[in-house]
Automatic annotation (TrEMBL):
Keywords: Purine biosynthesis, Transferase. It comes from Microbacterium hydrocarbonoxydans. One of its GO terms (molecular function) is phosphoribosylglycinamide formyltransferase activity. The active site is at residue 108. N(1)-(5-phospho-beta-D-ribosyl)glycinamide binds at residues 12-14. SUPFAM superfamilies: Formyltransferase (SSF53328). The record marks 144 as: Raises pKa of active site His. Pathway: Purine metabolism; IMP biosynthesis via de novo pathway; N(2)-formyl-N(1)-(5-phospho-D-ribosyl)glycinamide from N(1)-(5-phospho-D-ribosyl)glycinamide (10-formyl THF route): step 1/1. GO terms for cellular component: cytosol. This is Phosphoribosylglycinamide formyltransferase.
């Protein structure tokens, strides 16, 4: 059984989908801990599913490195096989990325390498393109530049707002994330040999 730590900042809808998938006996991964950089609403999903949770508040640390060191200490307690960034809206410091790599993946609401960064949905709308997408990648030391594990296109519709478009992307992200985690768990997908 693959053990998974999930890090969030927001509502944790993708986290919840993973928790629900993990209830299925055929799913080969289990979430063992959920961490956040703030008192994220999504921590409530962990509580509901009886999963341990921790918070390493960004604003209580004087630098990204200090925050990352504490995050690394908390993660080390659980020693999960895989760390999933599921809406964590902070860049991890390079030292922590190196320590967790390559067993560190991220979901992103755009068709990378298009529209990386914190505003992938807003940036796609602003660019006036007709389609965007969702991606699951291995985290490297760039901003959303790591090897792509799965991605899918999502059309942009007339009248879409950042909210409506993001809400249409998220179900695609969830499906991709669950599939990638299951394929890592079964050995079908090897992170060390990711393209
Ligand atoms: C997701 O769309 C995720 O891809 C995005 O935040 C959302 C979190 O939603 N992450 C990024 O944009 C990272 N650059 P959730 O909290 O409802 O799962």
């Amino acid at each position: 059984m693959l053990t998974v730590a999930v890090l969030i900042s927001g509502t944790g809808s993708n986290l919840r989908a993973l928790l629900e998938a993990a209830r299925h006996p055929d799913f080969r991964a289990r979430v063992v801990v959920v961490g956040a950089d703030r008192e994220a609403d999504g921590l409530a999903h962990a509580e509901e599913f009886g999963i341990p949770r921790f918070t390493v508040p960004w604003h209580q640390h004087e630098s990204r490195e200090a925050w990352g060191e504490e995050l690394g200490r908390q993660l080390a307690v659980w020693n999960a096989d895989l760390v999933v960034l599921s809406g964590l809206m902070r860049l991890l410091p390079a030292g922590l990325v190196a320590a967790l790599s390559p067993r560190l993946i991220n979901t992103h609401p755009a068709y990378l390498p298009e529209f990386p960064g914190a505003h992938g949905v807003r940036d796609a709308l602003a660019a006036g393109v007709t389609e965007t997408g969702a991606s699951v990648i291995v985290v490297d030391d760039g901003v959303d530049t790591g090897p792509i594990l799965a991605q899918e296109r999502v059309p942009i519709l007339d009248g879409d707002t950042e909210h409506t478009l993001h809400e249409r992307i998220k179900p695609v992200e969830r499906r991709l994330l669950i599939d990638v985690v299951q394929r890592i768990a079964t050995g079908e997908l090897s992170l060390t040999s990711a393209p």
